[in-house]
Amino acid sequence: MKLVKDTDKPESNKDQITDLQAEEAFKTVIKWIGEDPNREGLLETPKRVVKAFKEYFKGYNQNPAEELKKTFGDVDGYDDMVVEKNISLESHCEHHMAPIIGVAHVAYIPKNKVVGLSKLARTVDIFSKRLQTQERLTMQIAKTLMEGLDAKGVAVTIDAAHQCMTMRGIKKERATTITNYFLGSFKEDLSHQNRYLRLISK
Ligand SMILES: [Zn+2]
To answer: What is the phi/psi pair of residue 107, to 5°?
Structure first.
């Protein structure tokens, strides 16, 4: 069964637009908000914003499945869940390009393979550094780990604040959104799911 759709691996079309063109676009936005892009403090701003955007959205050039190929075949008999919690998460919502800031918790139950712990956080990072909805982000991480690790089960939780909710629009500055996605034994066996939820809530 193929869990990861091809749309989960967007082709970067960054190459079609040059840095200079992107800088020009930001210069237009600076003018549009009523500022003078030629004032000293703003002269280098379009360049800096382009550089920052490259970092915010570097996930388009990275393939999480590739990262997960380096698994360790020997689990040494370990067959219980591995939980990595409070992985800091910074993403951007695809509706407003506003920051989504929060944490991700990731768990899996190995079958034959374990993976370096940093790879779980890497997977979170790669999908976060794209324009996202929290729901899709949660699913993409879970499905990619399930497939890449050939795990018995995967659980992913994201708890995040959306700045499009806190800074604008409805302005609920304390609201956070929690999404969960369970696959395999976490979905089928409620005792696994409950133990996971207890572990991440500590
Ligand atoms: Zn938004």
So the answer is: -140, 150
Contacts of 33 (CB under 8 A, 6+ apart): none
The pLDDT assigned to 103 comes to 98
In the chain, the domains with their CATH numbers are 13-56 (1.10.286.10), 65-201 (3.30.1130.10)
pLDDT of residue 11: 58
pLDDT band at 137 (very low <50, low <70, confident <90, very high): very high
Break the chain down into helix, strand, coil percent, rounded to 5.
45, 25, 30
CA–centroid distance, 153 to ligand 1, in Å, is 30
For the beta carbon of residue 160, count every other beta carbon within 10 angstroms.
Answer: 23
Cα atoms found within 13 Å of the Cα of residue 125, Cβ hemisphere only: 12
Backbone dihedral angles phi then psi of residue 100, each to the nearest 5 degrees: -115, 120
The CA 169 to ligand 1 mean position distance, Å, reads 9
Q: Kindly report the number of other CB atoms within 10 A of residue 11's CB atom.
A: 9
pLDDT exceeds cutoff 90 at 24? yes
β-bridge partners, 167: none
* Beta carbons of 152 and 111 less than 8 angstroms apart: yes
Q: How many residues does the chain have?
A: 202
**134 is known as an active-site residue:** yes
What is the average pLDDT value for the chain, to the nearest integer? 92
User: What pTM was estimated for this model as a whole?
Assistant: 0.90
**Count of beta carbons in the 10 Å neighbourhood of residue 192:** 21
